[in-house]
Design brief:
Blueprint (H helix, E strand, L loop, with lengths): L1 H31 L5 H12 L17 H19 L8 H13 L7 H10 L3 E2 L3 E6 L14 H13 L8 E2 L8 E7 L2 H12 L4 E9 L6 E5 L2 E6 L5 E6 L3 E3 L6 E3 L10 E10 L2 E8 L6 H9 L23 H7 L13 E8 L8 E4 L4 H10 L11
Parallel strand pairs: 4-13
Antiparallel strand pairs: 1-2, 2-4, 3-4, 5-12, 5-13, 6-11, 7-8, 9-10, 11-12, 13-14
Length: about 400
């Protein structure tokens, strides 16, 4: 029993000596804090006082964390917290700023309250008389209800009250639709007689509509008419979907010389589009298009599949076999201020620029032009494309 006590006394005496050494070393480090900056000293103090709770890292996996690195991290977090408290937005790169700008343009009127959309349409109205109204359709808003948020048809009763007052009894009806991603002139009729007249004009190709599009590539020849029927086809694969495609009535002979006519597909629709290049630069073009028929996605398919020049921001028809963000050449990405991973944010650059209704004995010709949206004009400036009417940029 006496021997055990001697061993215990020896152990505790040695442990006291070791503990005193550890305390002296730690006290020496703490005394050195007087010569350090306050924020770095605070970090080092917290490291020393909590070191026994943190397991030491493996040397071969991770290098030990230095006090100076911790100090930098704490200062960075403190700066970000102060900026957030003061409402200052974090610093962004030019690419991040450009992407944020595009998102703002493409989401400005989507899923808004009907009164807000009606007020915007009333404010940007282009033309009106007792029979028809022409409005400036914004990007990303459907004409008809497809279960995807507020549409133009749903706010037309509100728009009528804004125009005619609470006692207005007229009913606005869309006559010629526009795709959700297309901007520009949209024709509305104020009575059934006007609807019938517009349908007659459109059927007999007497109502003129002109579109402007920015294309990736330069159409050759620079002016012409694309007369190729279109048909909806099923695209199999991991992303099962449907697309409109070409259904040509002619094909090259086996020798490659001359063409031969083939039988038209029963479900194909006749489609003709007149086009001309207004300007081209940096591998892109500003193209004016006049559809002579009204087939679904006609302009987009004729440009992408027939001319090999898809519209900028057309993520559906830029690649036939799959649905994926549009791939752009490096020089185009540089001019647009984007990188490859951010092209999915590009909106469709297709704008219904002008509409002309022929005159009658009692009414003169109606010619309405629509200014382009901001994202369209900014893309033109970045690509260096010039269009005839500079006053729309003001």
């Amino acid at each position: 029993m006496k021997g055990c006590r001697v061993i215990a006394d020896c152990f505790f005496s040695n442990w006291s000596h070791v503990r005193n050494i550890i305390v002296v070393r730690r006290q020496t480090r703490i005394n050195n804090l007087q010569h350090m900056r306050p924020d770095a000293a605070h970090v080092l103090w917290r490291t020393l006082t909590t070191a026994h709770h943190v397991p030491s890292p493996e040397p071969e996996e991770k290098s030990p964390l230095r006090a100076i690195d911790l100090a930098k991290k704490i200062r960075q977090e403190k700066r970000e917290e102060e900026r957030t408290t003061k409402g200052i937005k974090p610093t962004t790169t030019p690419i991040q700023k450009r992407v944020s700008e595009l998102k703002q343009f493409t989401q400005q009127l989507q899923n808004v309250h009907p009164n807000v959309l009606a007020k915007h349409l009333h404010k940007t109205m282009l033309f009106q008389n007792k029979d028809v109204i022409v409005i400036n359709k914004p990007y990303g808003v459907s004409v008809q209800d497809h279960g995807g948020g507020t549409c133009i048809s749903s706010v037309l009763p509100i728009l009528v009250k804004m125009m005619d007052g609470a006692k207005g009894h007229s009913e606005l009806q869309p006559c010629l639709g526009l795709e959700k991603e297309v901007t520009g002139t949209l024709l509305l009729a104020r009575n059934q007689e006007a609807v019938d007249h517009i349908v007659y004009l459109h059927r007999h190709n007497e109502l003129q509509r002109k579109y402007w599009a920015i294309t990736v590539g330069v159409p050759v020849p620079s002016e012409g008419v694309i007369d190729i029927p279109l048909i909806e086809r099923e695209i199999a694969g991991t992303q099962h979907h449907f697309k409109m495609g070409l259904s040509p009535m002619f094909r090259l002979n086996e020798t490659g010389e001359g063409v031969s006519r083939i039988r038209a597909h029963r479900q194909a629709n006749s489609a003709a589009t007149k086009y001309r290049v207004l300007d081209s630069r940096a591998g892109c073009s500003l193209v004016e298009l006049e559809p002579l028929t009204g087939v679904k996605h006609q302009i987009r398919v004729h440009l992408a599949a027939a001319l090999g020049c898809p519209i900028l921001g057309d993520h559906k028809y830029s690649c036939w076999s799959k649905l994926a963000p549009q791939k752009l050449p490096e020089n185009v990405l540089g001019k647009l201020g984007l990188d490859k991973s951010k092209t999915r944010n590009l909106p469709l650059h297709l704008h219904a620029r002008q509409m002309v209704l022929p005159g009658t004995n009692s009414q003169p010709e109606i010619r309405v032009s629509c200014p382009m949206p901001k994202y369209f004009t900014k893309a033109l400036h970045r690509l260096g494309l010039i269009f005839p009417d500079e006053k729309d940029l003001k």
